Amino acid sequence: MEINNKVLEFMPGNETVYKAVDMFISEDSQNQSTFPEEFLNSLTPTGLPPYELKLKIGCIIMLLRNLAPSKGLCNGTRLIVTKLQQNIIQAKSIDGTETFLIPQIPFIPS
Questions:
Q1: Which PANTHER family match (predicted)?
Q2: Mind listing the pLDDT tens digit for each residue in 11-52?
Q3: DSSP structure class, residue 5
Q4: Residue ranges in 11-92 assigned as alpha helix (H)
Q5: What is d(CA 54, CA 9) in angstroms, rounded to the nearest whole number?
Q6: Tell me, what's the pLDDT at 60?
Q7: Contact assessment for residue 89 and residue 77, using Cβ atoms and an 8 Å cutoff
């Protein structure tokens, strides 16, 4: 992540920070409050994005999920950010031919 932050520093424009909404999911409702949000935010499980996602318009993002394989939105697809909204990122394909809306996505480790 350190290299991503360094690259972002050199890009023009304002930085937008997206924060994860972390919660502990348990079948036992009494365990739900056992872990404070601050502790959950400090964890970085393998295969999950970090707690904070920092972006600027023009930066390149990579999908971590298959969103719409028929449209080419697959795990590993790279896109260029064109607009940053509260819960949606607008991005275009690297070749600039298509624009996509990327919604906020829940990540649940298995």
A1: ATP-DEPENDENT DNA HELICASE, PTHR10492
A2: 999 999 888 765 556 666 665 556 676 776 677 667 666 778
A3: H
A4: 37-42
A5: 10
A6: 95
A7: no
CA distances from 35 to 26, 38, 106 (A): 11, 8, 19
Q: Are 106 and 65 in contact (CB under 8 A)?
A: no
Other Cβ atoms within 10 Å of 26 Cβ, number: 12
Four-residue CA torsion sign, 84, 107, 21, 54? negative
Q: Round to whole Å and give the CA distance between 19 and 44.
A: 13
Integer Cα distance of 51 and 28 in angstroms = 25
Residue 15 near residue 8 (C-beta atoms within 8 A):
yes
In this structure, what token pair is assigned to residue 35? 């872990």
Strand partners, 73: 68
Q: Dig out the tokens for 12 from the structure.
A: 């023009």
